[in-house]
Amino acid sequence: AQSVAQPEDQVNVAEGNPLTVKCTYSVSGNPYLFWYVQYPNRGLQFLLKYITGDNLVKGSYGFEAEFNKSQTSFHLKKPSALVSDSALYFCAVRDMGYALNFGKGTSLLVTP
Amino acid sequence: EAQVTQNPRYLITVTGKKLTVTCSQNMNHEYMSWYRQDPGLGLRQIYYSMNVEVTDKGDVPEGYKVSRKEKRNFPLILESPSPNQTSLYFCASSRRGVDNQPQHFGDGTRLSIL
Questions:
Q1: Can you give the pLDDT at residue A40?
Q2: Nearest CB partner across the interface for B43, out of A46, A98, A102
Q3: Which of A36, A39, A82, B3 has a beta carbon 3.0–4.6 Å from A44's, enabling a disulfide?
């Protein structure tokens, strides 16, 4: 089965510093990978996806993700964190149908 | 505005009292799905629907029912709720096809079963 793992429950970073939220995947075949963000009392919002092509994927709100096939990773990055980036971040992989298999989520806290 | 609308947003009820959480999308999406979110477990799929009158079980379907009589609506039914169904529920929808369109999520329904 397709699965992803987010090894960190929480990531803390100071405003203005670069941030990385980690995700590794396990799939058979080509991976279809996604990042979503969840703000308090809201649903998940799509940030970016990797299907094929460039290993560096650019998404919403200045986020990007780097697909690394040899390390089976799809880490979310941002060059300069904002306090407003504080939220819960989910990595997901599309299953054989259309279902998304989510990681357990990583809470990002950006401090002023 | 493209959106997925869930109702109610919050509900406290008692064990055994049937309840329905509605989900409606205005994007003409074929695919719809229900997830539950629990701390430390991420989101797990309950049921999904590939199109009208087509539904199938996800990873955690026990204790839930769904129906898809119209394309825009995908209600989640708990016929006899139990405390272990206390959770945050999300409905999602997307287009079908080969372009891997992202799923759009509702704002969630927080259910507390006493």
A1: 86
A2: A102
A3: A36
